Sequence to fold (896 residues):
Amino acid sequence: MAVEVAGTAARKATRNPEASRARILDAARQEFVSYGLSGARVDRIANLSGVNKNLIYHYFGSKDALYLAVLEGIYAGLRERQRDEDLRELPPVEGIRRLVESTFDHFVATPELIRLMSVENIHFGEYLKRSRSIKPLYSGLLDTIEILLKRGQSTGIFRPDVDAVDLYLSISGLAYFFLSNQHTLSWLLDRDLAARRRVNKRRQHVVEVVLGYLLGSSLAGAKG
Amino acid sequence: MAVEVAGTAARKATRNPEASRARILDAARQEFVSYGLSGARVDRIANLSGVNKNLIYHYFGSKDALYLAVLEGIYAGLRERQRDEDLRELPPVEGIRRLVESTFDHFVATPELIRLMSVENIHFGEYLKRSRSIKPLYSGLLDTIEILLKRGQSTGIFRPDVDAVDLYLSISGLAYFFLSNQHTLSWLLDRDLAARRRVNKRRQHVVEVVLGYLLGSSLAGAKG
Amino acid sequence: MAVEVAGTAARKATRNPEASRARILDAARQEFVSYGLSGARVDRIANLSGVNKNLIYHYFGSKDALYLAVLEGIYAGLRERQRDEDLRELPPVEGIRRLVESTFDHFVATPELIRLMSVENIHFGEYLKRSRSIKPLYSGLLDTIEILLKRGQSTGIFRPDVDAVDLYLSISGLAYFFLSNQHTLSWLLDRDLAARRRVNKRRQHVVEVVLGYLLGSSLAGAKG
Amino acid sequence: MAVEVAGTAARKATRNPEASRARILDAARQEFVSYGLSGARVDRIANLSGVNKNLIYHYFGSKDALYLAVLEGIYAGLRERQRDEDLRELPPVEGIRRLVESTFDHFVATPELIRLMSVENIHFGEYLKRSRSIKPLYSGLLDTIEILLKRGQSTGIFRPDVDAVDLYLSISGLAYFFLSNQHTLSWLLDRDLAARRRVNKRRQHVVEVVLGYLLGSSLAGAKG
DNA sequence: CATGAATGAGATTTCATTCAT
DNA sequence: CATGAATGAAATCTCATTCAT
Fold:
């Protein structure tokens, strides 16, 4: 009888275990994203998902385990979209540009990701480390970067001595900080960092910084 | 003649309000940094600081107000050390380099700052916005960057069309992400990002990225 | 097959929400009546009602809200028993006599009412004013008095110029003070005002005062 | 140096034990009157009186003892003003009228008295009973009433069989209820009972009720 | 006489979790 | 599979009172 209605309001029982499970996960993601791990409330998750609180424990065992399930789902989405393997064949500059842009875009499109990454680091990454599913997602990422770097360096367009890890951290960090700390920064700098124009501008800037660094002569490293 | 003993164990009452207040703030900083706002426990702060729990409420009024006091203290420290005004007189490249380095160094030296910034953004910056003391600290920062940029651009060493806000976000972000997300990144990338060598290398990299971007021709922005 | 045992000792959980709610309300009434609002203790209410303390918050939200619920229950009982509408048809003297007696009797039968009225006035009636349910109970009362007064005055038995509000206040006040201040008055006047004989005597006295006033010539108002 | 300033704001230390003691009592009266015994806060009394909290304990020993001191002060004032002995010589009607009026007037002039009487009865009169000073104040009251009654009855103007205790309770109760329950009654009856006109009207009404009863034929007691 | 600092016990309220059906 | 009722432990906060000077 129950009609599935999209939205966030509470709904009636479905007698459909898959749907219940999914709705719990959905609500939990919202809750953990909004309030962090300690700040999240199981009661609110139950209300939001429209299921009985006990079902949450039935399916997930504990608040912590539920958080971990949410975390895994979010990270899976991140790496799925980055799909870096496709980039390996591209011309190096184009490949890097695409990697920078897709990283930036995914961060922008999934603010939940940013917040959960912050939350997880507040908790010293201990839940991430418990996960079996997340780490494998990262296996190919550095390889992709390394391949693009090597190809770019072999033709002399990219500066030598660029570390793939550092480059990855820079690509992510240039987008991440801007987004993760948007609330404090907007206030402190008197700019609305969430404004569409600002975001677009930032995207271009990040690309320029990464490519400017890679393409620039290494003189920059010399004493100013 | 109670001897002041350094460390974290509880101590006896001091009958010295300044000292009590300071010890509470100290313990609170540790607690909020370790567990976030929701995860922090007033009991632990009382134990850690060696004062009666009530004294915390006597001096600070509430857990939230105590958090705000900690936040203000931390931010004051950040901007105090950045002391950007001194940099305005330097040659532009040198000025930027110093700004990058001091930002990086302060972040590294004050891991508490990074964590509290994360915590605060998880809470949408609402406590920061309540503070009267923090925002003024940021008033001169963008001016400094703008001055250095202008001077560098007027002699043609810096690329044109660089936005001071974007530059500041990049300088900070390149250091911040690496530090704030150290726990998850170390695990996912199979590198110990906290290792001294890694940190030093990162410092140099960040300088190179920023200067590489500023000094590089703007061709980088062109299609790959 | 848990057997319901009457009394005030704690009982096991009933898994019957109506019963739990009722037991909480019951215990709360006793507690607020005995100690006032500030003096009441949620812990005692929990013990007395035999439920977990949290259940009180689950059902009522806060100590204050629980107090309001108790207050509403008590007032509802008062006006229900007064059932003044029935009196409108009676001969005026008989109607007033019955009103006086039923008011007196209900006050005597429900000492909790008197105490809660005192408690509420100590708190400036602020909870009463928050209630949506109480005020409507009083809508017909003054009408009833007015009707009886008019009819008695038209035949000349009741003195003219009697204000219904004043009459109601006198009817209530003559009974109320005797009961509400019983403890101090018994001590100060060296009489046991709670004694059955005294109460019966007082009941008769109150009727006589009210009717004596209404039936007497208005000469009494003249300078002695 | 310290200048004595009238008012309720906190003042500096006076090094004047009598003044300090008086100021504490003053503030305590306000506090107990406003919030009752359980609701009163020692901290507020200290602030209000402008003395160190410890001094309160120095002079009065405990919150309870301070409350008792306030209570005694208030009751002393009541009986002092009633000065019923003066009334014994008056013509009976005049004597009763004066007693009614002075009781009413003192209640109106000293709202604190009404509230403390309520507070004390909420606490079952247990503090009053501990007082040595209060009870003696009431010794002559019933005698006065009895004398006036006897004289009025001997000349036939007053009805026979009037109990002095009942009469006293009626005189007080007719004024007390109107004042003590002003907050709830004003709300429930949709009348501002605190309005000057209302109070004046009530005063006259109370006199009329008492004298109407005393002067009326005892037929009123007969079945209506 | 007087004070500012500090305390301990206990108050209200919260919250993850389990019970009984 | 699913639920509404209930719980225990612990959280934040309050308040009368005492300490040390």
Q: What stands out?
A: Chain D has two domains: 12-61, 72-217.
